[in-house]
Amino acid sequence: METEKVVALLEQRGVKVDDIVEIVYSLQVPYHPDLSKEECKESVLRVLSKREVQYALYTGIALDMLAEQNLLPEPLQSILNVDEPLYGVDEILALGITNVYGSIGLTSFGYLDKEKTGIIAQLNNKGKSIHVFLDDLIAGVAAAASARIAHKFT
C-alpha cells in the first residue's frame, strides 16, 4: 500500500516507474545482456517498497514542494532556489537509498549524479518546479535497484 502512495507521489512530480526502469536497464544490461526491463521494474518496485526509501522520498519531495511555494526559511529558500552546488544535503539523503543494497550502489549513484541521464536530466533542468532533492533521490533509487540486480547475478 505504501509503495502505491510513493509511486503516485513520484508521478505527481513527473516521474514514472518506467523512467527509473530505463536508467536501471541502461546501467545493468552491459553486464547482463539477457536482462529484461521487467526484471528491472521488479527491482525498482522492491527498492520503492522499503520504508527507509519511502521516508527519504517523502522528505526530499516535501522540501522541493515547500521551496516551490517559497515556504522555507532563509537562507534555505535561497539555497534551494539556485540549487547551490555546495549544498550537499540532497546527495546525502539520496545516499541513504543507495546503501540499502550495499556499497555497490554508491558507484552507480556517483555516475548518475555526474551524467544526469534520462529523467534525472529532465528533473535537473531549471523550470517552475524545484527538484533539488528529487533528481538525486531518483538517482539513488536507480542506483539501489541496479545494485540489487548486480547482487542477484553474483
Automatic annotation (TrEMBL):
SUPFAM superfamilies xrefs: YutG-like
InterPro entries: PgpA-like_sf, Put_PGPase, YutG/PgpA
Protein name: Phosphatidylglycerophosphatase A
Pfam families from the UniProt entry: PgpA
Annotated TM spans: none
Species of the source: Effusibacillus lacus
Coiled-coil blocks: none
One GO process term, biological-process aspect: lipid metabolic process
Domain YutG/PgpA: 19-150
Any GO molecular function: phosphatidylglycerophosphatase activity
Domain of life the protein comes from: Bacteria
